[in-house]
Design goal:
By secondary structure, this protein is α+β, with helices and mostly antiparallel strands. It has one helix at residues 2-24; strands at residues 27-29, 35-38, 43-45, 48-50, 59-64, 73-76, 79-82, 90-92, 104-106, 115-123, 126-128, 131-137, 142-145, 148-151. It has a single domain (27-138), classed as Immunoglobulin-like (Sandwich), CATH 2.60.40. The protein contains one helix and 14 strands. Strands 2, 5, 6, 7, 10, 11 and 12 form a seven-stranded mixed beta sheet that branches. A three-stranded antiparallel beta sheet has the order 3-9-8, with no helix packed on it. It has a two-stranded antiparallel sheet with strand order 1-4. The chain is elongated and about 65 Å long.
Length: 153
């Protein structure tokens, strides 16, 4: 009977070890270059797990650097919630979480959205939060009135 107990203990250890080591081996990947958008655009702030692994059981928080308590989007316990000031403008691709895609869709980009955003993912005692920069430009428009043509700011 004793060898059976050893086998069960060993099997339990290997399952726990495999689960913790696989999470520890993960990295969150964001682009090194800024995402560039024009005011009014819909953009994606890219973030994914490497190697590819499911993020469904993870807690995910997208926030503007320095504003952790006011997330754009919070995914916890398999439920997503848009942050104050971002309702109707942000979402995760929840069907892609199984493939490790944590990218955030930000609609109708505003000039005030420019800055650095952190993609934070956590599971058990593993946590990472790389930053991705967003640059927002304003495209001047051409206005024609009574035969005169000028650029608006």
């Amino acid at each position: 009977m004793e060898p059976l107990i050893h086998k069960v203990c060993l099997l339990t250890f290997l399952v726990v070890f495999d689960a913790t080591s696989s999470v520890a081996d993960l990295s969150l990947i964001v682009p090194p270059d800024p995402v560039v958008a024009s005011a009014g655009d819909d953009i994606i702030l890219p973030c994914h797990l490497s190697p590819q692994s499911s993020a469904v059981a993870m807690d995910i928080r997208w926030f503007k650097e320095g504003d952790f308590t006011n997330p754009l989007y919070l995914y916890k316990s398999r439920t997503g919630e848009e942050g104050e000031g971002y309702k109707g403008r942000v979402s995760l691709f929840t069907q892609e979480l199984e493939r490790g895609n944590l990218s955030l869709l930000l609609k109708n980009v505003k000039v005030s959205d420019r800055g650095r955003y952190k993609c934070q993912a956590s599971h058990l005692d593993w946590i990472q939060e790389p930053a991705v920069a967003l640059q927002v430009t304003i495209i001047p428009s051409l206005v024609i009135r009574a035969g005169q043509c000028y650029r608006s700011p």
